[in-house]
TrEMBL record:
<dbReference type="GO" id="GO:0032259">
    <property type="term" value="P:methylation"/>
</dbReference>
<dbReference type="InterPro" id="IPR019874">
    <property type="entry name" value="RF_methyltr_PrmC"/>
</dbReference>
<feature type="domain" description="Methyltransferase small">
    <location>
        <begin position="96"/>
        <end position="186"/>
    </location>
</feature>
<keyword id="KW-0808">Transferase</keyword>
<dbReference type="InterPro" id="IPR007848">
    <property type="entry name" value="Small_mtfrase_dom"/>
</dbReference>
<feature type="binding site">
    <location>
        <position position="136"/>
    </location>
    <ligand>
        <name>S-adenosyl-L-methionine</name>
    </ligand>
</feature>
<dbReference type="Pfam" id="PF05175">
    <property type="entry name" value="MTS"/>
</dbReference>
<dbReference type="InterPro" id="IPR040758">
    <property type="entry name" value="PrmC_N"/>
</dbReference>
<dbReference type="InterPro" id="IPR029063">
    <property type="entry name" value="SAM-dependent_MTases_sf"/>
</dbReference>
<keyword id="KW-0489">Methyltransferase</keyword>
<dbReference type="GO" id="GO:0102559">
    <property type="term" value="F:peptide chain release factor N(5)-glutamine methyltransferase activity"/>
</dbReference>
<feature type="binding site">
    <location>
        <begin position="113"/>
        <end position="117"/>
    </location>
    <ligand>
        <name>S-adenosyl-L-methionine</name>
    </ligand>
</feature>
<dbReference type="InterPro" id="IPR002052">
    <property type="entry name" value="DNA_methylase_N6_adenine_CS"/>
</dbReference>
<dbReference type="InterPro" id="IPR050320">
    <property type="entry name" value="N5-glutamine_MTase"/>
</dbReference>
<feature type="domain" description="Release factor glutamine methyltransferase N-terminal">
    <location>
        <begin position="6"/>
        <end position="70"/>
    </location>
</feature>
<protein>
    <recommendedName>
        <fullName>Release factor glutamine methyltransferase</fullName>
        <ecNumber>2.1.1.297</ecNumber>
    </recommendedName>
</protein>
<dbReference type="Pfam" id="PF17827">
    <property type="entry name" value="PrmC_N"/>
</dbReference>
Length: 271
């Protein structure tokens, strides 16, 4: 089979499952070439191993497996991160958190719930003087985040902890994108998310606020006097989270993402 025939075959298969926009990512991963190279050399005969892998990818995709898990890779803030089904696939919205975090002053950073490590590692690479610690309750997540730190030569300290449990105070910046889906809404998630992404990274308890409540309650003990608590939130959680912050005498602002949804809360002690 030549490249041209393969492109046609892949397009038809992806169209049948409504994922035609994914052909570029699949082709570039399979051939380890830019798509423009393939278009320019569409008469080349395709290697049997690539054909075999292509069929595996199509089958996995038909079952609903996310591309990021099929290729063990997702790009975040311009860098590739290793991912597998034990960590949340880094989201575009979370890149927005990075942009906000980078505007804040501070020398030390703590992330609660690192997943793939994409946020902590990006913070370290974008601001090398920052001292970066990150925790997760999942051993597998710590392992994946460690691999990513190594891959990007990022000097960060990742360790296992149930939120603040093993953390030593104190930090200038504390960040979390915790699980925040209400338990009763877990069933309504897209199949791709529900069947493949770790529920430990998604389920935020009965009202979706379990983690925010615990994080906010303990933040005064772990945040320096002029430090910032930065939280990624669900689009409809702003008011409830502001009420929790008010109870610890913190004040904050909420920033909307590019889609116009409330996304990031930045909070400090009330003066
Ligand atoms: C929504 S994911 C965010 C991952 C990563 N920060 C990102 O944005 O891609 C939440 C993470 O919190 C972790 N987590 C869940 N419960 C936790 C707990 N009690 N203590 C620490 N981490 C926890 C999960 O394992 C998961 O990696």
């Amino acid at each position: 089979m030549d490249v041209k025939t393969l492109l046609h075959h892949l397009r038809k298969e992806l169209e049948s499952i409504g994922h035609e926009h994914e052909s570029r990512e699949i082709l570039e991963n399979l051939f380890k070439r830019d798509i423009s190279y393939l278009y320019a050399h569409d008469d080349l005969v395709v290697d049997q191993n690539i054909l075999k892998r292509l069929e595996e990818v199509i089958e996995a995709r038909k079952l609903g497996q996310p591309l990021a898990y099929i290729f063990n890779k997702r790009s975040f803030y311009g860098r590739d991160f290793f991912v597998n089904s034990s960590v949340l696939i880094p989201r575009l919205e979370t890149e927005f958190s990075i942009q906000e975090l980078l505007k804040l002053p501070g020398n030390s950073f703590l992330e609660l719930g690192i997943g793939s490590g994409c946020v902590s590692i990006t913070m370290k690479l974008e601001r090398p003087s920052l001292s970066v610690d990150g925790v997760d309750i999942s051993d597998q997540a710590i392992q994946v985040a460690g691999l990513n730190a190594k891959k990007h030569l990022a000097q960060v300290h990742f360790f296992k902890s149930n939120l603040f449990e093993k953390v030593t105070p104190s930090y200038d910046l504390i960040y979390s994108n915790p699980p925040y889906i209400k338990t009763k809404d877990m069933d309504d998630l897209e199949d791709e998310v529900k069947k493949y992404e770790p529920h430990l990274a998604l389920n935020g308890g009965e009202d979706g606020l379990d983690f925010y409540k615990k994080i906010i309650k303990n933040t005064p003990d772990y945040l320096n006097k002029t430090g910032y608590l930065v939280l990624e939130i669900g689009y409809n959680q702003k008011e409830e989270i502001f009420a929790l912050l008010d109870a610890i005498h913190f004040t904050g602002k909420c920033i909307q993402d590019y889609g116009g949804h409330d996304r990031v809360i930045i909070a400090t002690r009330r003066k």
